[in-house]
Amino acid sequence: MTYNREYFEQLDQQDPLAPFRDQFALNAGEIYLDGNSLGARPKKAAQRAVQVMEQEWGKDLIRSWNTHNWFELPYRIGDKIASLIGADKGEVVCTDATGINLYKAVATALKLAPKRKVVLMEGSNFPTNNYMIQGLVAQLGDGYEVRFAEDHEFAEKIDEDVAVVCLTQVHYKTGRLLDMQAITEQAQHKGCLVVWDLCHSAGALPVDLNAANADLAVGCTYKYLNGGPGSQAFIFVARRHQNKVNQPLSGWWGHSAPFNFERDYQPGEGISQMLTGTQGILGLAVTEVGIDVMCAADMQQIRAKSQALTRYFIELVEERCGQFDFTLVSPREDELRGSQVAFSHAQGYPIMQALIDAGVVGDFRAPDILRFGFAPLYNSYCDIWDAVERFHDIMLTERWKQPRFNQRHAVT
Ligand SMILES: *Cc1c(COP(=O)(O)O)cnc(C)c1O
């Protein structure tokens, strides 16, 4: 079918999520399609940061741990995140980076499956996941190892040596969505635990960890949860696994009585032992603002709009830029795709730079992928139409061939 801008204007008028856009600070004239890398800033995050700076840190200083409940923040935010990912209160804390939480989660899972020593991972996953677990098995020694498989091979690669299957639900490059429930069931049936990485699913689609009987999970808050650059990540440990083993980064914040300053480590109850050291309060306070915005939205509406945005984007790019040799890398079926779309093109890098220059902000992932993320809380249907207009123009005029678009930046 051939669309026009009026068609997308009408979709915006009918969109129940449209009012959320006004809660975000967006640049006029810019179409931000990189919320899967760094979510946009909720307007209120700035006020919250100033409040912590001037009052809580500036005036109340050390008292704020109690009077402003700084001490509670990792739990309070964790409980809010829990409500977004199908977990219960007391199963999630917001702390540390995703990679560090993954280390703690996989180490914990390995201790829960003591007779086995293999961690099965997806080689093409976001590399830090592989690096962290390679570091973990090197530390453990004694026959522990990482094995890699790609998605169509998971089932056959799970044998009686595999202790932990560690997977990212939505692939960071392709946007492919895995069936959490089916894979968890399969792996558990073969005696393994599963650690899920929700970096590209939390806030992007409905996740139901407990319905899937998930074991452990981690994820970040600076992508679809709009927590801010490098904001604290989260870790989930199913209630049935809590209080059984100790995670290795046993710091004083995870101690059962941190202010007794005892010589020896005693793990705290429940999820609390997943904390390690003093928490970054500035980051947590700002993160909570993004989580609160997300908690006010309906996740089914988010998913429906995300599927529509990505579907229209694929259709329009293929219709209007199809002759320029782009290959769709993301799944075409709505139900197999997260909230992003990737196309490959041999000249992907300069084309993406030209797009960013024209106010269509996506990103490039080596070697040849143009990646576009769709955040239903602040992306409109007209964004899709306007982005593809500019995309088409760049290809038709060959503006991407300007030498300045081939200069590489440190962060792509
Ligand atoms: C974004 C992302 C990360 C980020 O990890 P950090 O520790 O925050 O740097 C990790 N894994 C996956 C799959 C991601 O998409």
From TrEMBL:
Keywords: Hydrolase, Pyridine nucleotide biosynthesis, Pyridoxal phosphate. PANTHER family: KYNURENINASE. It comes from the Bacteria. It catalyses: 3-hydroxy-L-kynurenine + H2O = 3-hydroxyanthranilate + L-alanine + H(+); L-kynurenine + H2O = anthranilate + L-alanine + H(+). Pathway: Cofactor biosynthesis; NAD(+) biosynthesis; quinolinate from L-kynurenine: step 2/3; Amino-acid degradation; L-kynurenine degradation; L-alanine and anthranilate from L-kynurenine: step 1/1. The gene is kynU. Its cofactor is pyridoxal 5'-phosphate. This is Kynureninase.
